[in-house]
Amino acid sequence: MDKASDSVNYYRLLKGALQFSIFIKNNIYFPQFGVRKNNYEINAENLAYIEQCLWRPDTDAACPKFIVSDIMDAAGIKDPLASAFLSGAVISVAINYNCDFDRGDQCLPSYDFRRIDQPEDKISPGYNFRTAYYYRNSNSTLKRDLYKRFGLRFVFVVNGVGGRFSIVPLLIAFGSDQLKLSGCRFLQGWVCSVSPLWLLTLC
After folding, report:
1. What is the pLDDT of residues 110-128, one digit of tens each?
2. What is the pTM assigned to this prediction?
3. Whole-number Å distance between alpha carbons of 53 and 27
4. Between the CA of residue 5 and those of 70, 94, 147, 152, what are the distances in Å?
5. CB within 8 Å of 43: residues ≥ 6 apart
């Protein structure tokens, strides 16, 4: 960090960012069952609920609104101002659906947060990138200002598992098992019929 950066109170500027809210809108499709689900149509009074709720892993795990500080805590980042905000960070957001369509249409996802970058790296730790701004000064000389930017990058991973009872796979599995048992009985009878006398005692 250079002298110009040292003169800025980053802690004071970034502290308010911990209270930013993030709304995650996600959709998923189960083509085998023709079912589409999402994470924001939670109940009949959906609009009022979305406006008032905040995600909490123990009390309100279905809410799709998150506070940045809660995400940092869930990702295991103990001091986000020092370890994530100043150098940046990459956060994995895993959205998992586990749906039983025989029990109605209610299928709410669960959320898992994890930091996936390596803050201990010696070379360019965290998440950062550079952008350039080109302009001409009063003498028409081409100039360039190079900015190094730090931030939080969220990587979303969506997994979905859905199931529904069907009589056809059950009958196929049952018939296959019965066929296997019949084959075993036939094979046993054939072996006993052609076996020598000393093997007949095993039949």
Report:
1. 999 999 998 888 888 889 8
2. 0.71
3. 19
4. 28, 35, 12, 19
5. 49
